[in-house]
Structure formats: C-alpha cells, structure tokens
Design brief:
Oligomer: single chain
Structural class: alpha/beta
Number of helices: 8
Helix content: 25-40%
CATH class: Alpha Beta
Number of strands: 13
CATH topology: Rossmann fold
Number of domains: 1
Mean pLDDT: 92
C-alpha cells in the first residue's frame, strides 16, 4: 500500500522503517531537507503553510505524527490544529481519499489527578492548552470525510531518550504520581497495526501494560546502572501534571501485541538486556 507520514520525527521515522520493512510504499512529509529513512521517499513541505500541500502525493494510509516545535499554545495550535486542518482539507480534495487517517494524540487529553483508571470512554477535561489543542485535532480527524483514528500515546521513550536512565544513575528519586509510557517501537507498531485493521475504533489509548510511579521506575533502573538506591519517592511538586492510570485494553483486544509490555522490558533493552 501507499503510506504518507506527515511529520516523520522520532515516532514517524520508526514508523516509516516499519512500513518499508513490511513492503509498503512510504512517503515522509517534512519541513527539513533531512534524508528520509532508508527505502522511503521525501516530500518537503510545511504543513502549516498555505498551498504547501498542493502537490501532495496520493496515499492509501495517512499518518499524522507531527510534533509541536515548543511547549506554547501557538506551537500546539500550529501542529495539532492548523496542520491537521490543512492536511484533512487537502486529502478530501484528492480524487481518491485515503482509506484511513491515523493521528498521534496524547494521554494529556485526560485531566484526572488522583490515580484514577482511564480509558477511551473516560472524561477528557485537560487542565492545560496542550490537551485542549490535541482534542481539537482529534475532532478534526473525526469530522473528516474518510475514516480516522486517534491514538492517545503516553510518554514515549526509547533509543536516544535516556534522561530517566541518567537520573537513576545519579540517584534521583521520582515522585509518587502514576505515569504511563510506551516504547517508541510499540508506538510505531501500534500505528501500523491499527492502519491495517479491517475495522477500527475512532480512538485508542496507546500505553504499555503497566502504569507505574516514576519512583518505581527509577528504583528499578538504579541498581542496573550503578546508581545509588533512591531514598524513596520525592514529594509531589506543587503544580504536578496529575496522576492517572491508563488502560490499553482496547488496543490489546484489537490484536496488537507489545514488544515491550512494561517499562522493565523496554528499559532492559536500552540497558543492553539488563532486564532481570
């Protein structure tokens, strides 16, 4: 199949490699002149620029994996609202619309604070602009004249994203709030899986199988990197971003099987197999 990946950054580049390996024809849309992943073709454009998508190639499957340039309301609006709107409008004008559009949203759309379990049916009342802009992007995908799916990803980690490992090496103690995460390769794998389902739900929660406090994750990593055992959970910061436990039951029921079902397998792989 022909696949278009709009915004081939950390997750999008891994997705491109996954789709190429599966035999799909892949085009990556980027602003930069960076070379595309091996086996993929490049289409250079700024999603937020008027007219930039006029020559957009046709695709059977479209993935929107663009990220904001910075943490500001303006950057989130450009990335998750204006960019999505322009892409949807352009795809709708093509002679053959895509079979499915997949949008990488975030568990930031949930505003729960007290360790509640949340899933696709839970209330989405984000406390900040980031979650609100992502919900606007989801609404645009739902309103498109072709099928759309939002994958609400937890915190993404993987190769090159090792700040938690460095903190554990330094003996840092994490907070007591629940956190939810997903390895980059599972984020890409879940997107590819959902794209090819005969029928898909409009929304999935994309997290691994075990919510955990940051304190627990750091305590597990520390002895594997020679770090001092953390002194226990640090007090919650005054303006904590909340505490929630996200369920991935719908994603599992769709048939997806995680390569890294918990942080132990994921960080164990990053540490060279030290996952016991």
């Amino acid at each position: 199949m022909r696949a278009l990946i709009a915004g081939a950054g950390y997750v999008g580049a891994a997705l491109a490699e996954c789709l190429v390996a599966a035999g799909h024809e892949v085009v990556v849309l980027r602003r930069s002149a960076a070379s595309p992943p091996p086996g993929a073709r490049a289409f250079r454009a700024d999603l937020a620029a008027p007219g930039a998508l006029d020559a957009l190639p046709a695709a059977d499957l479209v993935f929107y994996t663009a990220a904001a340039d910075e943490r500001s309301d303006g950057a989130y609006r450009r990335a998750y609202v204006e960019g999505v709107a322009r892409l949807v409008e352009r795809l709708a004008r093509q002679p053959a619309p895509p079979r499915r559009l997949l949008f990488t949203s975030s568990t930031a759309v949930y505003g729960q604070q007290d360790g509640e379990w949340v899933d696709e049916s839970s209330a989405t009342e984000p406390a900040d602009f980031g979650g609100r802009r992502l919900l606007e992007g989801e609404a645009l995908v739902r309103a498109a004249p072709f099928p759309g799916v939002a994958l609400r990803l937890g915190g993404i980690y993987g190769p090159g994203r090792t700040s938690l490992i460095e903190r554990a090496r330094g003996g840092a103690a994490g907070g007591p709030a629940y956190t939810n995460r997903i390895h980059r390769d599972d984020a890409a794998g879940a997107l590819a899986h959902l794209a090819l389902l005969p029928e898909a739900e409009p929304c999935y929660v994309g997290v691994d199988c075990e919510p955990a406090t940051e304190a627990d994750v750091l305590a597990w990593i520390a002895p594997r990197v020679g770090g001092a055992p953390p002194p226990g959970a640090a007090p919650a910061p005054r303006r904590a971003r909340g505490s929630k436990r996200c369920r991935n039951a719908r994603l599992l029921a769709s048939g997806y099987r995680f390569r890294y079902p918990t942080y132990r397998e994921g960080y164990g792989a990053l540490l060279g197999g030290r996952g016991a």
